[in-house]
Amino acid sequence: xxxxxxxxxxxxxxxxxxxxxxxxxxxxxxxxxxxxxxxxxxxxxxxxxxxxxxxxxxxxxxxxxxxxxxxxxxxxxxxxxxxxxxxxxxxxxxxxxxxxxxxxxxxxxxxxxxxxxxxxxxxxxxxxxxxxxxxxxxxxxxxxxxxxxxxxxxxxxxxxxxxxxxxxxxxxxxxxxxxxx
Length: 181
Hints:
The chain is of the alpha/beta class. It has helices spanning 3-18, 81-98, 113-123, 136-141, 168-180, and strands spanning 53-55, 60-61, 71-76, 103-109, 128-132, 148-152, 158-163. Helix 2 (81-98) crosses helix 5 (168-180). The model is unreliable at 2-37 (pLDDT under 50).
């Protein structure tokens, strides 16, 4: 087997094992600020990966394209029931609530494009959408379950990573913490 095939197989098995687990675990940097246990202290934040990905419209992008305002990145797939529920119940209303203060990016992972587009239409989400077909960016962040959400500050540094579904209130709390720092 080639390295790419083995990497894809490994990612598929990891996602299958953790997919839509409903886990409320946090991954990535460990919080050091007692007042906000799920947020990484400003001086300990690491830069977000700079890997290029393809947007649904065919253009190329990187996370650096969003620097200047906080960014919520959500890794999702149409085959993940928790992802489907989270898109309409948490992400759409949260995006409407914070308006232009925060950018939103949905990265579709290991999914059929037609199924992904159908879900976008059904949920009515309006944020930017891109592809992470092999899960490369997902792995760079250290994702271990689906859905997987990353909050990046305006300077392009990782504030928080969350494995598992979020409610609207949890997502808005994450965003509020990022805007407060």
